[in-house]
Write a structure and sequence with these properties.
Blueprint lengths: L4 E3 L3 H13 L4 E3 L4 E4 L4 H14 L14 E4 L2 H8 L10 E4 L2 H9 L8 E3 L9 H7 L9 E7 L5 H8 L3 E11 L5 H11 L4 E3 L3 H16 L8 H6 L2 E4 L2 H9 L5 E3 L4 H9 L3
Parallel strand pairs: 1-2, 1-9, 4-5, 4-7, 5-6, 7-8, 9-10, 10-11
Antiparallel strand pairs: 3-8
Length: 276
């Protein structure tokens, strides 16, 4: 059976990429390995956005006070979309920061883009992470200023730690919750079907890859003796990943067929086309 391109992003981000992959003539499977859900009570987010909009509404006027937050950083497109559900006006005088090209596109979709807004992202578009975002920021200018980081519930602390080390006062607020899907009979059938053929798996999150590994280990734990383990079958699949950290996670989980592309859908698509 011919293989497919398996797109494992959360559903909202998977669909646009799936359309572009299908347009290239590939069979596409959308298999979200992270479920994104809104917070039941986004109290911290709402309070932070209120501080942002109330103080920055007139920050462009010569005599206006500076905005409450000098910097607002988003760690993912999901964080941007979750915040802009509540952010009805875009405050001026704020530096906006994103870690990757997908987030830059998502921010632009909400009307925040250069030259009208000051948007900072890693200087090398192929390196989408907090480390390279910190290198792109004017950290000296943030000494004594307030910064807001909007992200999922939980996550890496490197960006917040780096800003605090530069002297910034940092608020970190959750905007959504993410979790691996439960192993339903439907998901089990899909996984077994996909593992029966050789596919290209687009994996854009270490967390998603670890979640997939956990789901397959759960299948193996209840499989009859003598059956080829699902984890072993998955380790023989080809992964396409945009970041070295995800490639390292794949290596640690026993994957040997991994292509590292760098950030951005264009690079993911180029990696697919190079396999023709």
């Amino acid at each position: 059976m011919a293989g497919a391109v398996v797109i494992t992003r959360p559903l909202a981000q998977a669909r646009p990429l799936a359309a572009r992959v299908a347009a290239l003539g590939y069979a596409v499977e959308v298999l979200p390995l992270l479920e994104i859900t809104p917070l039941a009570e986004p109290t911290e987010l709402l309070a932070a956005l209120e501080r942002l909009t109330s103080s920055a509404a007139s920050a462009s006027a010569p005599s206006a006070p500076p905005p409450y937050y000098a910097l607002v950083a988003f760690v993912s497109p999901n964080a941007i979309d979750a915040a802009f559900i509540h952010l009805k006006t875009v405050p001026s005088g704020v530096t906006w920061a994103v870690v990757g090209e997908g987030s830059r596109v998502a921010l632009a979709a909400h009307g925040v883009a250069s030259p009208g807004s000051h948007v900072v992202s890693p200087l090398d578009a192929a390196r989408s992470d907090s480390e390279h975002l910190l290198q792109a920021l004017d950290l000296a200018a943030l000494d004594g200023k307030r910064a807001l980081i909007i992200r999922g519930d939980g996550g890496r602390e490197l960006l917040a730690d780096g800003l605090r080390a530069a002297g910034a006062q940092v608020d970190v607020v959750p905007a959504y919750r993410r979790a691996a899907p439960s192993l339903s009979p439907e998901l089990e059938a899909t996984l077994r079907r996909l593992l029966a053929q050789d596919n290209d798996w687009i994996i854009t999150s270490s967390e998603a890859l670890r979640g997939l590994h956990g789901l397959l280990a759960e299948l193996d734990a209840r499989a009859p003796a003598g059956e080829i383990p699902c984890v072993v079958s998955m380790q023989q699949q080809h992964l396409i990943v945009p970041h070295a950290r995800i490639a390292e996670t794949a290596h640690n989980l026993g994957f040997s067929r991994t292509t590292l592309t760098g950030s951005g859908d264009e690079r993911l698509l180029a990696a697919l086309q190079s396999r023709l």
